[in-house]
Design goal:
Blueprint: H1 13-28, H2 34-49, E1 53-60, E2 63-70, E3 77-79, H3 83-91, E4 95-97, E5 115-122, E6 128-136, H4 144-156
Antiparallel strand pairs: 1-2, 1-6, 2-3, 4-5, 5-6
Helix pairs in contact: 1-2, 1-4
Length: 158
């Protein structure tokens, strides 16, 4: 696949995802390097949606460690069960947080981020080995449509 995304303008968010996901599958299919795939997925999401921050945290021992991302500098390590990312890892489910200030124990890596989605990424044994973290500097940008399709993207990552 060429390293260019082709997304039709002026369409619904759901249709944008429907165009983006097959292109991402083609991009990562056949590439065995996890970091390369995560980097390209983060870049594609940033390019497509322009969110404040998009990235991955990888499980290493009892912490999530910063992986490939797009956006300003970020927290490097997050403990199991801490913040939205650590809670996603612990509970093995996605979180949509419309206002991060309302999430108990939220970790403010950037005061500009006001809403967040975190999606777990599972290995073949069903254990979380990474999380996909999306932050927005605006309220009411992230929604259930994003959760649905970000979870589909997470299933592509192995």
């Amino acid at each position: 696949m060429a390293e260019t995304l082709i997304i039709s303008p002026d369409q619904s968010k759901e249709n944008i995802y429907k165009e983006l996901i097959p292109q991402l599958k083609a991009l990562v299919e056949g590439e065995t390097d996890l970091i390369a795939n995560l980097a390209n997925i983060a870049a594609a999401l940033k390019e497509t949606f322009g969110w404040w921050w998009i990235g991955f945290y990888l499980v290493k021992g009892d912490e999530l460690v910063l992986g490939p991302f797009q956006g300003p500098i970020a927290c490097t390590r997050i403990k199991y069960g801490r913040g939205v990312c650590g809670t996603t890892w612990k509970e093995k489910r996605s979180f949509l947080v419309p206002d991060v200030n309302q999430f108990p124990g939220h970790i403010a890596c950037s005061s500009a981020s006001v809403s967040e989605i975190v999606v777990p990424i599972f290995d073949k044994q069903g254990d979380v080995f990474a999380v996909l973290d999306v932050d927005s500097e605006r309220f009411d940008v992230l929604d259930e449509v994003d959760v649905k399709y970000l979870e589909k993207m997470a299933e592509m990552i192995k």
